[in-house]
UniProtKB/TrEMBL annotation:
The chain crosses the membrane at residues 5-24, 30-53. The keyword Transcription does not apply. InterPro entries: Glyco_hydro/deAcase_b/a-brl (IPR011330), NODB_dom (IPR002509), Polysacc_deacetylase_ArnD (IPR050248). One of its GO terms (biological process) is carbohydrate metabolic process. One of its GO terms (molecular function) is metal ion binding. This is Polysaccharide deacetylase family protein. Residues 67-244 form the NodB homology domain. GO terms for cellular component: membrane. It comes from the Bacteria. It comes from Sphingobacterium gobiense. Keywords: Hydrolase, Membrane, Metal-binding, Transmembrane, Transmembrane helix.
Length: 257
């Protein structure tokens, strides 16, 4: 697995050698090539949570999943969460909701209903700031802790799972989750339900990539997603898949013991 801790010193050494070659050989081509490669790798590592470049993230169950997948819903609770819960109940599927603290404050009854119906709640920061990828460690910790407190006050459980907004990981996020002792949960199947407007395309995209052990990313924030679920849930059932919560899929604890 690619790791920032291994590659960063390698880039540094290679960069220094290339700089010396430039100074004494007259061509800085290698130096700029390494600089470009390091910048590219940093950006790729920050936005592809599966690489585990800056921090370890669980993103699927590799072995012995036996038709089990985990549906996950980010950015709620919202007025659409009730319909998502109704559909999950109809198919007896369990899911994991990565809630934004502010949204839990706005819809506390919905957060309680998620728990009462046997689903799991994870942390998706207090405010889901657009600038999340540029926050310092202490600001990421504040975002995590404020969300933890709100979830604990609303449903009586302190989440262990954290999903970074936009799937961004970087050194600040890596240190922050060490501080709050939380685990990063990514995904292996992304519906793109917030950027694709056509419901059929979202449905086809998820089905085409579907494998046992998948963690599937949705957002419980639109009627579009609800409509996709109305097709997807019967498809999953017909093809022998069941959705379980992330803790169940990965054999982890969802809440602080
Ligand atoms: Zn989000």
């Amino acid at each position: 697995m690619l790791k920032h801790a291994i590659l960063y010193p390698s880039f540094l050494v290679a960069g220094c050698i290339a700089l010396l070659i430039g100074i004494f050989g007259g061509s800085f081509a290698w130096f700029f090539a390494i600089l470009l490669l390091a910048a590219g790798m940093t950006a790729w590592g920050a936005f592809d949570i599966r690489l585990g470049y800056f921090a370890h993230a669980f993103f699927r169950k590799k072995y012995h999943a036996e038709g089990r997948i985990a549906l996950t819903f980010d950015d709620g609770p919202s007025p659409h969460t009730a319909e998502v819960l109704r559909l999950l109940k109809a198919y007896q599927f369990k899911a994991t909701f990565f809630c934004i603290g502010k949204q839990v404050l706005a819809h506390p009854d919905m957060a309680k209903q998620i728990i009462d119906e046997g689903h799991v709640i994870g942390n998706h920061t207090y405010s889901h700031r657009q600038s999340f990828g540029f926050l310092k460690e202490k600001d990421v910790v504040t975002e995590l802790e404020r969300c933890n407190v709100i979830i604990q006050q609303s449903v009586g459980k302190k989440p262990k799972f954290f999903r970074p907004p936009f799937g961004v990981t970087n050194p600040s996020v890596a240190k922050a989750v060490q501080h709050t002792k939380q685990q990063i949960i990514g995904w292996s199947n992304r519906s793109l339900d917030t950027v694709t407007w056509e419901e059929d395309k979202i449905y086809q995209r998820v089905c085409k990539k579907l494998k046992p052990g998948d963690i599937i990313l949705f957002h419980d924030t639109s009627q579009r997603t609800v409509n996709v679920l109305k097709r997807l849930l019967p498809y999953l059932q017909k093809n022998g898949y069941i959705s379980v919560s992330v803790d169940d899929l990965l054999n982890l604890h969802a809440y602080e013991q």
